[in-house]
Amino acid sequence: MSKTNESLMQRRVAAVPRGVGQIHPIFCERAENATVWDVEGREYIDFAGGIAVLNTGHLHPKVVAAVQKQLTKVSHTCFQVLAYEPYVELCEKINAMVPGDFDKKTLLVTTGSEAVENAVKIARATTGRAGVIAFTGGYHGRTMMTLGLTGKVVPYSAGMGIMPGNTFRAQYPCALHGVSTDDAMASIERIFKNDAEPRDIAAIILEPVQGEGGFYVAPKDFMQRLRALCDQHGILLIADEVQTGAGRTGTFFAMEQMGVAADLTTFAKSIAGGFPLAGVCGKAEYMDTIAPGGLGGTYAGSPIACAAALAVIEVFEEEKLLDRCKAVGERVVNGLKAIQARHNSIGEVRNLGAMIAVELCEGGDIHQPNPTLTGQVVAKAREKGLILLSCGTYGNVLRVLVPLTAPDAQLDKGVAIIAECFDELA
């Protein structure tokens, strides 16, 4: 009996807890670059990229070759027991690539949540303070501390009770929805006045471009004022670049476009081309605050993932993927804006590089989110052979995270499918 998506979904429901969500009722059999095939042999264009994990595409030949070569040497020792050169080499490269004119060191771990957890640990150890300021709409992970930082209860922490304390929420600037840089800065000052003194705050953490929150880009003047505020009060600035990093925004790290450097930078997702790897890079003096044994993990900085990440960095250089990122962003955005011109249900098309969002609203009113239409577009696009994602506080934002290696013809076909969906639904 041949496997079907439906039969596998039945097995999944019986074996896997419902808390593990699944956007599309599809089981992938194989993938190449920006194309995936399900177990029934149907082909799809992948505009999701494993949620920003596949900037170099599925199974890039150079990444595959690096992993195969590493597998002939060693797959695991635990870096804290027996070290290996790929870990050190990757840290050297990351230290050189992360913005900031200061000496840096890098810690490698396994997931984005783990990277954020460790960034907070380092900030607390460095400052001797416990408080952290995060932002509305922010997403920083699903572990306990990161859920405290994540600015969205449903579905991430619903039913789990109050998350760890010492987290305070400021407003993330968003001109589209009436939150100015002044408003955002004033919300931080209110925290200082009402909730915690600056001397109690270890770090301020934010995404340079919000991921789950809807792909809103932090204004440069806000980031610069945030940097000045942190310097004034001895607070560490943490840039969560888990989704924006590894070239998604047109620079390898989005903070390169913000005019200031963070004290600590978290990264994950696309850094290793589909293999689990994450990390924290920061000022060497801060990174060295914690004593030996206070950082690390059994699988942290797997030699296989390190080999993959080194290959990813080479691919970016050899294939000029940062330039390609800008071209992908321009091509897709131009296509989406042409659709917007015909449909007032599209309130805004926005991007930084190839981190692209389409915000849907009711009847042209940007303040009336339309999650129903968003879900319908995602479902209809799937029927037509395109894998899309949604996001946003109200679930009304379509997001595009297509591999940067996708050919133009495939980008155009994907945009054409989106156009068909709006023509049929909106």
Automatic annotation (TrEMBL):
GO terms for molecular function: 4-aminobutyrate:2-oxoglutarate transaminase activity; identical protein binding; pyridoxal phosphate binding. SUPFAM superfamilies: PLP-dependent transferases. InterPro entries: 4NH2But_aminotransferase_bac, Aminotrans_3, Aminotrans_3_PPA_site, Class-III_PLP-dep_AT, PyrdxlP-dep_Trfase, PyrdxlP-dep_Trfase_major, PyrdxlP-dep_Trfase_small. Its cofactor is pyridoxal 5'-phosphate. It comes from the Bacteria. Pfam families: Aminotran_3. Keywords: Aminotransferase, Pyridoxal phosphate, Transferase. GO terms for biological process: gamma-aminobutyric acid metabolic process. Belongs to the class-III pyridoxal-phosphate-dependent aminotransferase family. PANTHER family: AMINOTRANSFERASE CLASS III (PTHR11986), LEUCINE_METHIONINE RACEMASE (PTHR11986:SF58). This is 5-aminovalerate transaminase. It comes from Pseudomonas pohangensis. The lineage of its organism: Bacteria, Pseudomonadati, Pseudomonadota, Gammaproteobacteria, Pseudomonadales.
